[in-house]
Design a protein that fits this description.
By secondary structure, this protein is mainly beta. It contains 1 helix and 10 strands. A hairpin with a 5-residue loop joins strand 7 and strand 8.
Length: 114
């Protein structure tokens, strides 16, 4: 399940969540090798890949990923519905068949928590 701004997108082939730590500016290793710093936040990143998709599915994905900030609902790694506000990373895809149905292959992007 992947819902962006209340629009259900085609089922992803994979959705891999990451949890990225944001550290304070004074973070680093001291001369002794001891690590110091303050953890400011943990932000989610969703790595999303779709398998082959039709022109219509590709258009739906493109429309969703062209927006600046979006609300995304998805199933998290604990098999629970989760949601948040995200922005999109780069979107890439390859055409598999240009003459029949404009099928896309290897369509992928990531969404980073705002």
């Amino acid at each position: 399940m992947l819902i962006v701004d209340n629009v259900t997108l085609p089922e992803p082939q994979s959705l891999t969540p990451e949890h990225n730590k944001i550290w304070s500016a004074n973070t680093g290793r001291l001369d002794s090798g001891y690590f110091v710093g303050d953890l400011i936040a943990v932000k989610r990143k969703l790595n999303i890949t779709w398998g082959p998709c039709t022109k219509e599915d590709a258009q739906k994905i493109l429309a969703a990923t062209r927006k600046q900030f979006v609300q995304i609902k998805y199933i998290n790694e604990e098999n629970e519905e989760d949601q948040g506000e995200f922005y999109w990373g780069d979107l890439s895809g390859d055409f598999y068949n240009l003459t029949v149905n404009h099928i896309m292959s290897g369509f992928s992007c990531n969404a980073i928590e705002r």
